[in-house]
Amino acid sequence: MQENASAIRTAPILRFGVSGPERRDDRVSVEEPLEIRVGGETLAVTMRTPGHDFDLAAGWLVAEGIVRRPEEIVRIEHCREVRSPEEEGNVVIVRATEPAAASLDRARRLLLTSSSCGLCGKGSIESIRGQFPPVDSDARVEASVLGGLPASLRRAQSNFAETGGLHAAGVFSLEGELLVCREDIGRHNAVDKAIGSLFRQGRLPLARTILAVSGRASFEIVQKALSASIPIVAAVSAPSSLAIDLARESRIALVGFLRENGFNLYSGEDRVFAPAPAR
Known about the structure:
six-stranded mixed β-sheet; Cytidine Deaminase, domain 2
């Protein structure tokens, strides 16, 4: 079920076109809740596209600072003892080594804060900096490499090509090689799935990689990159003000409005370069 869960289903629609209404089937992205438990405790419920649930759970735990090394996760499995048909395949249990009590307590406090009033302003950046130090990497990327990422990401989006309804996140090498791509109806989930996949392979920290996302760059996207020590984040849409602030505080190059013919660089000028024009 882990890799083969259906991300797409058909829905009957009435299509209006130049020749009038026509009944047909459309292919749409599936959205279902995923409950993440560590041991017997529920830590998160997120709406996601089924598939790569274990990567999603692992990436979420990394972003929350609950686990730092793959060996801290003993096993990930879908819950077999469900209370209703709706829970079937939608509850993931993480069996972990005894995590630091401080890590779990911090995650609980952050979840409580974000559900009540949201993380905001300088205090939120300081709380993230308390968990994750600035990215310690000398990584630099050529501007032309960044320009090629959107096309590479689109080619890897098989489900988006069918539905038009999924976000994508890809982790690339500094030379533009795609290391992993994940899709999800939620852009944060897509990032967790991509980072979680590489984490489970023992490849973190990702200090010489680029995170590319198909939507906008929010504070949470930059936070997740920071948790994995990713030094460059590139988005095809706009960044938020808090995303820019956190990127600058964390030594992350933040790229927005990424296109083949150019982009905006909001932070990290030392990480992006362009060769001198030929004379």
